[in-house]
From TrEMBL:
The protein's Enzyme Commission number: 3.4.21.-
Family to which this protein belongs: Belongs to the peptidase S9A family.
Organism (species): Miscanthus lutarioriparius
Peptidase S9A N-terminal domain residues: 7-425
Keywords noted in UniProt: Hydrolase, Protease, Serine protease
InterPro entries hit by this protein: AB_hydrolase_fold, Pept_S9A_N, Peptidase_S9_cat, Peptidase_S9A, Serine_Peptidase_S9A
Name of the top EC class for this enzyme: hydrolase
Catalytic activity: Hydrolysis of Pro-|-Xaa >> Ala-|-Xaa in oligopeptides
Highest taxon of the lineage: Eukaryota
GO BP annotations listed: proteolysis
Name of the protein: Prolyl endopeptidase
Domain Peptidase S9 prolyl oligopeptidase catalytic: 487-704
Coiled coil found in the keyword field: no
Amino acid sequence: MAAAAAPPVAKKVPRQLVEHGDVRVDNYYWLRDDSRSDPDVLAHLRAENDYTAAVMSDVKQLEDEIYAQIRGRIKEDDIDAPLHKGQYYYYERTLTGKEYAQHCRRPVPTDAPITVHDVMPSGPDAPEEHIILDENVKAQGHDYYSIGAFKVSPNNKLVAYAEDTKGDEIYTVYVIDAESGVYVGQPLKGITSDIEWAGDDHLVYITMDSILRPDKVWLHKLGSDQSSDACLYHEKDDTFSLGLQASESKRYLFVESGSKNTSFIFYLDISKQNKELAVLTPRVYGIDTTASHRGNHFFIKRRSDEFYNSELVACPLDNVVETTILLPHRESVKIQDFQLFDNHVAVYERENGLPKVTVYRLPAIGESIGQLQGGRVLDFIDPTYSVDPEESQFHSSVLRFHYSSMRTPPSVYDYDMDSGVSVLKKIHTVLGGFDASNYVTERKWATAADGTQIPMSILYRKDLVKLDGSDPMLLYGYGSYEICIDPSFRGSRFSLVDRGFIYVIAHIRGGGEMGRKWYEDGKLLKKKNTFTDFIDCAEYLIKNKYCSKEKLCINGRSAGGLLMGAVLNMRPDLFRAAVAGVPFVDVVTTMLDPTIPLTTAEWEEWGDPRKEEYYYYMKSYSPVDNVTAQEYPNILVTAGLNDPRVMYSEPAKYVAKLRELKRDDNLLLFKCELGAGHNSKSGRFEKLQEDAFTYAFILKALGMTRKLASL
């Protein structure tokens, strides 16, 4: 039983790590095995898993019940919003009891133009559905299965898809006949999920170097051998990585080479027989560009130190250095993304921490283009929400976008950019008696130590909370890479919220929610702002009676796992329980080792500790280096053995050091998925099991395991 289980004790094999004359002793360095086959390492990971299972065995019934609740909210047999593309509607279908999706299409019965009122026919008289690819069939025999790209050729006859069967994000690309499913040519191996068609008989793709950095872009002619493919560009600077995208017009491909603060672009004209890359924007340190195409212009989003929230410019195809400003830089509005159409541009922005979508009408193709005026701003109803672009059709006036909030299920809208009419095409059905009106979402601001206002998004069920400090809470944070953690919908969350929890997202510095400066104030030598912001949010929530220290649980993954490790060392008294998912916790050692995947590309995010100033700053917050002999709250740590982003050994070492030094009897559990990577398991229901396990741990830590009845 749980009471008899003894935690595994990792053996100590001291290893001296010396940098700048400073000596660190790492007793658990031996846990790193790049081959992932060392018997001692695997035995230790299995012992940790066995211990975790034993300790959690007394709440297995609760975990199973939570899993049933979460799964019970899902409409298992469903289709997403069909996309009218050429002569077909394309969509994904899920089936009852099946982990993965089917990729389907159905012929469009008429040649009518695309409108917001377009509805795919169904029923006995409708054109027959065709299943192009069934992931459930392809996944058979694999513990892990993920399709990273699914690209239909311009003539709709072929499909190229990228497949990962380990979780290491190294893909194999197959080309199939869209009707028969017969393979065309040989698979392309060892590539990223960035693939695009260059006409109907060529593919462009990207491969990685030994540290999994996307460094080469290739042109493949269908039917030829991969070994004869032409390398279009090789990025030799190991702080830069390559990316690939197609213009909405489908006339150009763009290859971007980017670091954390610089990017430049090549373009490829698909219509030309001689498929070569040409320079669109030059390589200038500190200038960041992304591009697309319409008519006789390239459109470019450009960021620099001066124009840090980005500007939107256009240049003629035949004179790319002659730029015209379409949207100038604004201090209070950050341009995040844009989508081009025949007659419009939709600009995705951020203002005051919230997403904003503005649509502008463009002059006719061939006419001169100047600063955009008179944009139409889309209205959204929730106080905090998430909006993202969806694939739309260039030769239409219909903008498709994805909307949700913490209480509004995922919704797909088609917006008529001429009339301003918005039509809901799909809202995910949430079963189990879900009623959005039972829930409240709020936006509050905590004041950081330096006076900065930190936004928070809050969700609770209004008939279950007291707001007197006695409510349990789960506080989530990330705060890195300029990533915006917008308050979107997640059905599993309600298994806590319906037990009286308040759920909060802290939009801390290091993310991009409040603009580029928000990110820059939470990276490099300002990284500690991320951690102190999170602590300040926690203290605001306690002071304002949303929770108490005794009921406050925290959660973060990856760089958010670093956040967990840092705040647990800084303020272990503030929290009752913490969940650190695939956490980046051995910061100094990882950043000193350029042979580890992603390290070189990360120096512009965290700093290069080969430089003394960065070394000592990093060492002052790196979780593994700052575990001390003190009391810690209840902690659950997770990892994936095949994770290429955060090596499993980082959380393994972190847990081993915590076990050695902590001075309390609270739970410390480590769960390492031996057949998964950074994103955990691949099946849609398997992923829910992880949520159920996490929530059972939180409830156990809070002593709330008796509340088994469904609400």
